[in-house]
Amino acid sequence: MKIFLAQQNYHIGNFENNTLKIINAIKEAKAQNADLIVFSELCICGYPPRDFVEFDDFINRCYAAIDKIKEYADTIGVLVGAPDRNLARNGKDLFNGAYFLYDKEIKAVQHKTCLPTYDVFDEYRYFEPAFNWQVVEFKGRKIAITICEDIWNLGDNPLYRICPMDILMQQQPDVMINLSASPFDYTHDEDRKATIKSNVIKYKLPLFYCNAVGSQTEVVFDGSSLIFDRDGNLCKEFPKFKEHLEGIVLNDDGTIDSPVIEPREMVPDQLLEPLQLSETLNIAQIHDAIILGIRDYFTKMGFTKAIVGSSGGIDSAVTLALACKALGKENVRAILLPSKYSTTHSVNDAEKLSNTLGNPYDIVAIKNIYDSFLNTLKPIFKDLPFNIAEENIQSRIRGNLLMAIANKFGYILLNTSNKSELATGYGTLYGDMAGGLGVLGDCYKLQIYELAKFINAEKEIIPENVISKAPSAELRPDQKDTDSLPDYAILDRVLYQYIERRQGPDQIKALGFDPALVDRILRMVNMNEYKRNQFCPIIRISPKAFGVGRRVPIVGKYLS
Amino acid sequence: MKIFLAQQNYHIGNFENNTLKIINAIKEAKAQNADLIVFSELCICGYPPRDFVEFDDFINRCYAAIDKIKEYADTIGVLVGAPDRNLARNGKDLFNGAYFLYDKEIKAVQHKTCLPTYDVFDEYRYFEPAFNWQVVEFKGRKIAITICEDIWNLGDNPLYRICPMDILMQQQPDVMINLSASPFDYTHDEDRKATIKSNVIKYKLPLFYCNAVGSQTEVVFDGSSLIFDRDGNLCKEFPKFKEHLEGIVLNDDGTIDSPVIEPREMVPDQLLEPLQLSETLNIAQIHDAIILGIRDYFTKMGFTKAIVGSSGGIDSAVTLALACKALGKENVRAILLPSKYSTTHSVNDAEKLSNTLGNPYDIVAIKNIYDSFLNTLKPIFKDLPFNIAEENIQSRIRGNLLMAIANKFGYILLNTSNKSELATGYGTLYGDMAGGLGVLGDCYKLQIYELAKFINAEKEIIPENVISKAPSAELRPDQKDTDSLPDYAILDRVLYQYIERRQGPDQIKALGFDPALVDRILRMVNMNEYKRNQFCPIIRISPKAFGVGRRVPIVGKYLS
Questions:
Q1: What is the value of ipTM here, to two decimals?
Q2: Model-wide pTM > 0.95
Q3: Residues 258-297 of A with CB under 8 A from B
Q4: A366 — contact with chain B (CB < 8 Å)?
Q5: H-type helices in B238-279, by residue range?
Q6: Which residues from chain A sit within 8 angstroms of residue B534, using beta carbons?
Q7: pLDDT, tens digit, for every residue of A462-502?
Q8: How many CB pairs under 8 A join A and B?
Q9: Which residues of A touch B53 (CB under 8 A)?
Q10: Closest CA to A531 of B407, B109, B558
Q11: Structural domains in chain B?
Q12: Dihedral over alpha carbons A277, A283, A286, A292 (to 10 degrees)
């Protein structure tokens, strides 16, 4: 049996586009003598459709798309993902379904059982868990169909009380097929392979795993569809961050007609800590995820051109380099916005960067506008000393100028804030926190240095001086980040323990950090939730990014 | 048996404050010869604690608080809400529990079964549904304990497959007690009474219902704790939007020792549509909910003083009036920020308003700053015609000035955007969309006129001219909202169908609205999700507010 996996990039709610993609893949697979083609979870509407599924109209469009697609499922079996209405009296109105199409009919629908409702996932918000499980018989094989999380309910402390594969095994299936929409983070590649392999070892069946690819606002799906034989060998690994269609033969004896891929050395968990991110594989994945995140945001929003405030600092330099790669240097405009406190080397470094990248740039000094703000505010501020108010005025003048140029010429402002700043509230709302997409908002400062080194691996793109100088916001004379923040080498480690690992203050202090400093950092994080709440979407590369996957009370009084 | 309900306002994560409040109520109830005192859902940590419960440290603090409180539960039974760890191998790590304390011990913990995971609720993100149900025997009575949503699983299409009261009835309880944290919206008062009454009628038992009060960022809990006798009569209704502690005797024969309250006329559902909001009861509730929303945001964040950009328009006028009521006029500073396009009457109206309210105000003209922006941008803008870029520059200058004064003097900027604007994207990010709290963001424009009339009911506070003139942003000569938007009388009706009622385009058109206009409005709503995503928290007064309760893909392509 020749089974194709279609690893595709869908656009949420764009039924026309998604349906066309799916039909084209079916045609291509048929031309290559496919018996069966498998698509990813909720491919019909795109994943995650979020509250769109609360609209009857949206669900009707899903059914209409399936009606169209099933006309192409004549001599080929087709597995697609879409919502399905729950016709029972009790429970939520919808299931998350895998539709098996054949003979131009819907032959079966298997519902998802394990509904991830944590981090960026909200599936129980919309869907009722499956309560019927049935293998699909097709061309003499019994296929056990599961959806994404359904095969993740393993280990010592499984998250769900029902494990659907355990139930399906009673019907003696020959092969497992899983439709997924499982997003990237820098730990996920190895986790995914280990989990799929555990299923194969447990159930002694080959597994065809088809994952979505593409970025949906903040969540990046990396593809990496996989095929394991019944002995637990990896036989096929689809590329990361790219669409891919390929057919593999499942032999009659249950073996896979594709050579075994030797596993890479597993990376021990502690090596994946952000502070050891020089590990090449992972920083390359982070780089590629961000590139796809930028590109898909623009493509799916219908935008082409980006604008970046270029300060001569490392965050804007890395943002600019990534944006040029994602969108083309001619589509990325840098604006240098020096203040009276900006150093000459900052402007020089920013110019050098854009000269190397080849992207257009302008210099717009903010001094005159700043002076006019001070004059206008004089009757109110009187002779009160310079403080954070004046610093923020400058930052917000920059935000206003960038947005004005963006509005005038149709650019989208890319935000350059990093995760360390967002965590501690070291940024100005409506100033340097402005923008449509947070390119580096899930990267700690130390990780951004790693990204810069990675970008510079073959030739110097980001000027060495940008990497080596001490970080500064340059909003007052001789300002340094370390005036307000602990050293990033300490700050980032504490933040990582608190944010990614959800360690409490006592646990973090037990690691040897200065207790007063830990309390101060955790307090900064919790007090500044109100700022992050107004921040743009962040391209997610870690297992715990700020934004939709981290939901913290604003008026809370915990550790703050 | 004398049962006290403690309707209290908790602060999320503020264990010290919450524990003290609970202990004080226990002491007071004991002084009044209470047998039992009932608190609200998750009162120990405050509701909703959101991702804080993912911290072991946070859960440990909950247990520590219960340990402290149980010392006061000596001769009095105490029912408090807190998370409880799930010690089973499978399922989520926590339950949402009701702890029964007596004899200075935890005598029982009943877990919540029906976990709301829709709109603003995320309970299945954290909690495993109950799988054990046990009545509590106390002083000769069998008490069936449920938590909030547990008693809402009624009707023709119940949301959950298990109804905990059905199971508890097998143990022949004498009374139902429900611990709730059930938020306000303008339809909720009647819904709640009808639901509780349905339980009483179905199970033929008296019901003691204790609800939380107080605002938690965007969600306002209204209190309104209730006691019904076994015949379905309302015997006690606690005040709305206020703390209240009171004991009522449950007689040995199951009757309630409190006179029956005659039910108010039920308001038919269609009267609750926002366009008929002149219905006095509801507009008064909305008014009170917003006042509490402002006050609690400030109290819980540790703020005292607000700043408002006062334009002479109705939105800022209503915001200012509500803020003065919530915080005291001396704590609310208005800033008038006329541009060259502002009319004289706007400034006059804004001055008249503040003179009536008695709050301090300043006039800060933005012309000089605006000119300096235009001069600075001249080399880039050249002779391109005036368009939205220049409009937004002015709005963002205002945002910057308001934030600068706020930063200098420690004010919090209140945002004045309404739901109609937010829905259609008729506002400037970082300009008039700036602020820490969206006071009117869940009120359609037409509802704001109703609020203005309500505020003016006894004497003219908001100048009549503010109410009667045509709305305008005054960012270009002779601008009117209707240049860009449909009439609010039509716009608000279409928005209501789409947002609150989740009607699709065909359904809305079938109501008789112009089809092209419906498509245009729905497209505006969906295209502008990226703007709302960066907006501040909005005080929620409707069943479907923008913000945490409405989660829509930004890169989606549905109806846009």
A1: 0.96
A2: yes
A3: 296-297
A4: yes
A5: none
A6: 534-536
A7: 999 999 998 888 888 888 888 889 999 999 999 999 999 99
A8: 292
A9: none
A10: B407
A11: 2-266 (3.60.110.10), 271-482 (3.40.50.620)
A12: 170
